[in-house]
């Protein structure tokens, strides 16, 4: 039993485990996470951060902090456009964020954390059991290292780009949702191009598409900077398929995923996710409960069917985008 709890797979990074726990507790204390959400955030945070390669944790933290900041931008104004996931204090101020549960946290972290765990098992060298270094491991017994995004080393490149794509897509979707609704021109439904109220699932605008691209580029850029610092063996390395510097590939995948993930999210939101509008409150609402007897809550014309929740749409769009990148970057393709 003592051996079990001291193996690398359980808790090799005690400081990281403490930091991930603090992040979960902070989310709980600030009201942005429920108890289950805080536990899920701590577990997924450790899965991403507990890795000899920091790029996974950097991508996750960039998405988390940038998304949190975007949520707070003009929160009171956004609350007048959509039945916002926020609480109203006694003085009338809006507390941005929401009591996100474990399902919401998993939708925005599970795929990326899985990429981090897979990379750690395959390439960290922590599970070599004292055997001779085979050249496959990033942290070999002789200390040799290779560029982690070099396709010649199997799945390392695919897993890193998959994590960048996943959290880039999450950041792009968050930016589109939180900042895109602040666009001056009203959004149009992606399937019909008809003008719809701000906050409608599936609504897009030029500003919303721009900020989704910027969200993905932010994740890609911070990840590339992190890898350049910790993996100098990548200096001068170019991707064999595209002939691009490795850092341009990482940044490009982040930006592409932010934009494409947001578009996929919008298409799903416009087809398989319900959008309701309240005539009394004059904003998008999340249930058919009426404010008063004169209130009329109805589907936004042309909007989707009530088949998938917002969490499901977020998971499918981000994980689907990232899975495509993993397939595209996988060995032999």
From TrEMBL:
The chain crosses the membrane at residues 38-66, 207-229, 244-264. It is a multi-pass membrane protein. GO terms for cellular component: membrane. The keyword Membrane applies. Its main location: membrane. InterPro entries: DUF92_TMEM19. Keywords: Membrane, Transmembrane, Transmembrane helix. Belongs to the TMEM19 family. This is Integral membrane protein DUF92-domain-containing protein. It comes from Leucosporidium creatinivorum.
């Amino acid at each position: 039993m003592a051996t079990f709890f001291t193996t690398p797979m359980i808790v090799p990074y005690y400081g990281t485990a403490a930091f991930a726990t603090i992040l979960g507790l902070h989310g709980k204390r600030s009201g942005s996470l429920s108890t289950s959400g805080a536990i899920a955030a701590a577990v997924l945070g450790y899965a991403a951060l507990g890795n000899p390669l920091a790029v996974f944790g950097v991508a996750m933290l960039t998405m988390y902090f940038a998304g949190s900041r975007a949520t707070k931008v003009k929160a009171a104004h956004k609350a007048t456009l959509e039945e916002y996931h926020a609480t109203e204090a006694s003085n009338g101020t809006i507390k941005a964020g929401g009591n996100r549960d474990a399902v919401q946290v998993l939708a925005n972290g599970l795929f990326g954390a899985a990429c981090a765990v897979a990379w750690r098992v395959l390439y960290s060298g922590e599970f070599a059991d004292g055997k001779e270094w085979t050249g496959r491991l990033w942290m070999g017994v002789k200390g040799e290292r290779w560029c982690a995004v070099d396709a010649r080393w199997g799945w390392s490149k695919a897993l890193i780009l998959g994590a960048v794509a996943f959290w880039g897509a999450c950041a792009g979707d968050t930016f589109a949702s939180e900042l895109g609704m602040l666009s001056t021109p009203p959004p149009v439904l992606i399937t019909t191009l008809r003008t719809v109220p701000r906050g409608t699932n599936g609504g897009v605008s030029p500003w919303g598409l721009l900020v989704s691209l910027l969200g993905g580029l932010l994740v890609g850029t911070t990840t590339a900077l992190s890898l350049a610092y910790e993996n100098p063996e990548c200096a001068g390395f170019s991707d064999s398929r595209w002939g691009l510097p490795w850092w341009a590939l990482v940044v490009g995948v982040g930006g592409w995923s932010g934009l494409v993930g947001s578009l996929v999210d919008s298409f799903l939101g416009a087809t398989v996710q319900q959008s309701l509008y309240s005539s009394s409150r004059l904003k998008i609402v999340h249930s058919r409960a009426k404010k008063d007897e004169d209130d009329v809550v109805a589907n936004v014309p042309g909007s989707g069917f009530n088949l998938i929740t917002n969490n499901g749409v977020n998971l499918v769009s981000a994980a689907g985008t990232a899975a495509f990148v993993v397939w595209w970057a996988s060995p032999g393709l």
